[in-house]
Each structure stands twice: as structure tokens, then as C-alpha cells.
Amino acid sequence: MAFQELTEQQWLSESKAEHEREALFFFTPLCGTCKLALRMLEIAEAAGIAVPVRTMNINFAPALREKWRIASVPCLVLLRGGEPVRFEYAMRSVDDLYRLLQ
Predict the structure, then answer these.
(1) Where are the domains of the chain?
(2) CA dist 20 to 28, 43, 55, 60, 99, Å?
(3) Which residues lie closer than 8 Å to 33 by C-beta, 6 or more apart?
(4) CATH superfamily of 4-100
């Protein structure tokens, strides 16, 4: 299953009240570690995670990259009411991601 990919403008313009909790996965298309992390997220989603995950190419997200000081990719940002509460850079295992997104 593929996650919904957003542009920075789409994310900035939507209502944050739509999702109390959500996660935004930042990646770059040529990053091998990002592809592996995305595959682990897909498996976690198939297992039934509670938090919706969407993706964003960090190359086209300069405002969020700067505002949230995202240091590298892959980066999974956990959000509550549209505000970041946790930045996860190490995607260790499917099990870790599953627990994180419950």
C-alpha cells in the first residue's frame, strides 16, 4: 500500500483539526535508507497502526525543513494537532515503528 504524498503547500493549507494525531515521513527519492524505512512503515501500516502516515519529499519542503530543523532523512515526524511532538531519525525495525505509531 502506498502512503499519500503531500506537497508542502498542501500540508500547510489544510486544516490541522482533521487529524488529532498523524505522522509525516520526510524522504528524498534517491535515498536508499528512506526506501527501506518506507517499506518498514508499509508493513507496520498493514499490521494496523493507529496513526495515519503521509509522506513528503524534503527537497520540496524548505519551510517545514527550516521551521522544524529537520537534520536528515529519513525523518518521521509525529504530530499532535499539527505540531511536531517527536522526530524519529532511526528506523530500527518494523516492531519499533509499529509501537511508535500506536
Answers:
(1) 4-100
(2) 26, 23, 17, 25, 18
(3) 73, 74, 91
(4) Glutaredoxin (3.40.30.10)
Q: Which of 18-22, 79-83, 94-98 has the lowest mean pLDDT?
A: 18-22
Residues 6+ apart with CB under 8 A from 46: 1
Residue 1: pLDDT over 70: no
Mean pLDDT for 37-54 is: 94
| Distance (Å, whole) CA 100 – CA 41 | 11
> What pTM, to 2 d.p., does this model score?
0.93
Residue with cell 519529499: 57
Q: In angstroms, rounded to a whole number, what is the distance separating the alpha carbons of residues 86 and 14? A: 21
